[in-house]
Design brief:
Protein name: N-acetyltransferase domain-containing protein
Largest sheet: 7 strands, mixed
InterPro entries: Acyl_CoA_acyltransferase, GNAT_dom
GO molecular function, one term: acyltransferase activity, transferring groups other than amino-acyl groups
Shape: globular
Number of helices: 7
Radius of gyration: 16 Å
CATH architecture: 3-Layer(aba) Sandwich
Mean pLDDT: 92
CATH topology: Aminopeptidase
Helix content: 25-40%
Low-confidence stretches: none
Number of domains: 1
Structural class: alpha+beta
Strand content: 25-35%
Organism: Actinomadura macrotermitis
Length: 200
């Protein structure tokens, strides 16, 4: 059985695939079902953000027992003031490290909004491939993202550290409730990949 292939898609193709993309998100994150319509709205809005870039990991066709053709996805965009995540994190970084610290990370960032791999495909390097391809060739100075902070040794956290990303905030509660997050950042281009014991 062939591995899913990575493919860069534009904003229109991203919107056309939003339903299967959300299915991967739901399988990976297991959010309450009533949160999915709101997540759909947020992702659709992100597709209009500046310098939006998206990748999917797709199979040529759906296979019995493996669900749809989209098996993983990642997307991001140029972060700037006026974007909700950017403004919330900027204020938190100012509070913890000062304005210069916040500007170092968020003056010219590529913000990875989502990166998820279907649980049936995890542990094969697909998350690493998505992250590497997504960040390749970006001209921003830094890359930043947030990830669940339930387990500091999770495969996702290990993956991000393996390409040079560091914790900027931990145990961070975004407005509106939900679990604690870690905000991580690195410089671009990403550091050469150091293979951990496993990756998402």
């Amino acid at each position: 059985m062939r591995e899913p292939k990575l493919r860069e898609i534009d904003d229109r193709a991203f919107l056309r695939r939003l339903h299967p993309i959300l299915q991967v998100y739901a399988a990976a994150m297991r959010p309450p079902p009533d949160q999915l319509p709101g997540r759909h709205t947020i992702m659709a809005r992100h597709a209009a953000y500046p310098r939006f870039r998206a990748l999917v990991a797709e199979r040529a066709r759906s296979l019995p027992g493996l669900g749809g053709t989209v098996r993983g996805f990642a997307y991001g965009f140029h972060g700037e003031r006026g974007q909700w995540w950017h403004d919330v994190v900027f204020q938190a970084l100012v509070a913890t490290g000062g304005a210069e610290h916040a500007a170092h990370w968020l003056a010219d960032p590529f913000e990875v909004a989502e990166l998820h791999v279907h649980p049936e495909e995890q542990g094969r390097g697909l998350g690493r491939g998505l992250l590497t391809a997504l960040c390749e060739g970006r001209t921003e100075r830094t890359v930043v993202l947030s990830t669940l902070d339930l387990d500091p040794g999770s495969p996702a956290r290990r993956l991000y550290r393996s390409v040079g990303m560091v914790d900027l905030l931990t145990g961070f509660d975004f407005p509106g409730g939900g679990p604690p997050y870690a905000v991580m950042g690195g410089t671009l281009p990403l550091a050469p990949y150091r293979s951990p014991s496993s990756s998402p």
